[in-house]
Amino acid sequence: MTDPHSTLEVVREDEEHAVVVRVLGELDMATTPLLAQRLYEAESTVVPPTPVVLDLGRLRFIGSTGLALLIEHHRRCAELGIELRLVADHNAVLKPLHLTSLDTIFTVVPTMRQALDIEG
Fold this sequence. Notes:
InterPro entries: Anti-sigma_ant, STAS_dom, STAS_dom_sf. This is Anti-sigma factor antagonist. By secondary structure, this protein is α/β, with parallel strands linked by helices. Strands 1-2-3-4-5 form a five-stranded mixed β-sheet. Strand 4 (84-87), helix 3 and strand 5 form a beta-alpha-beta unit. The longest helix is centred in the middle third of the chain and has 17 residues, at 64-80. It is built from four helices and five strands; from the N terminus they run E-E-H-E-H-E-H-E-H. It has helices spanning 32-45, 64-80, 91-99, 112-117, and strands at 8-14, 19-27, 52-62, 84-87, 107-109. The N and C termini lie far apart (28 Å). The protein has one domain: STAS domain (Transcription Regulator spoIIAA, 2-Layer Sandwich).
């Protein structure tokens, strides 16, 4: 679903063994509420151990509020007994994850195929 004033587009897809949330655009203070809402919706429908896969492959920017949102949902998923997996293959996402050491906390893979093939 897209907000006409937002620089972020969020699309949810139910795969056979995962709920996929795809984002396109910029994840900053103005757009994190939209993604937060979509992640809460996805997490509330998942039956463990089905993961939530967050596809960041088309994200052009992630700010500190976006990183904080990822941490919040990583914790929430853990409490629910599900895994939050990230798909990212470019520096706009990988560099901030690496600089904050969040790449050691999350399962980060470069392709959707890899995210869906991980044994839970």
